[in-house]
Amino acid sequence: MKEKREAISRLENASLSFLSTIDVDGALDAALFLRRTGSVLASWTRHDVPVEILSVMTATMLASIETITETLGGPQWQSVAVDAGGRRFAATRIGPQALLVLIAPKKVSASYLRNATMEIAAQLLAASSRPVRQTRNGESASVTATTRSRRRR
Questions:
Q1: pLDDT higher than 90, residue 117
Q2: Would you put residue 62 in left (φ > 0), alpha (ψ -120 to 50) or beta?
Q3: Residue 19 Cα distances to 4, 145, 147, 148, angstroms
Q4: Rounded (5°) CA angle 11-105-20
């Protein structure tokens, strides 16, 4: 139970640094940091859209891809790229319990999206691996600092 609590605390630690990893002036339409269940750890969208729908449907799509891959005897996926409806989706696992999903217009190159995904994932993994400190009352506390980088389209 303690390990599970610590894993959750580490995900929460990473979620605190999530927004600092997003180039809000860049090419992305949305960035989601999710638990595998679809619950949102952190998110950013360019437009006012219902994040709950994006997160649940994204988790459902990725679970379907996982089921298809396993049914065909393939290994568990680490990253997924999908082009649909004028959008590009890139997803990658952040440890065993979380996912990073980036969504951009199709005019954005696949390599840009792949690079942005790898860069943000690396920062989230680093943040989630920082030690989680216990406060006097036993609650988790963490301090994170990340610099915002500018990516070119």
A1: yes
A2: alpha
A3: 24, 11, 10, 9
A4: 35
Instruction: For residue 43, give both structure tokens.
Output: 């998110």
State the architecture of 2-130 in CATH terms. Answer: 2-Layer Sandwich (3.30)
Read off the pLDDT band of 9 (50, 70, 90): low
Residue type, 89: F
Inter-axis angle of helices 2-17 and 110-129, to 10 degrees? 130
Contact 143, 16 (CB under 8 A): no
Q: What are the residue boundaries of the structural domains of the chain, listed by start?
A: 2-130
CB 141 within 8 A of CB 135: yes
Query: Of 67, 32, 68, which is closest to residue 53 (Cα–Cα)?
Result: 32
Please give the DSSP secondary-structure letter assigned to residue 1.
-
Note the pLDDT tens digit of each residue in 12-66.
777 777 778 888 889 999 999 998 888 999 999 999 999 999 999 999 999 999 9
What is the per-residue pLDDT for 85?
93
Angstrom distance (rounded) from CA 31 to CA 131: 25
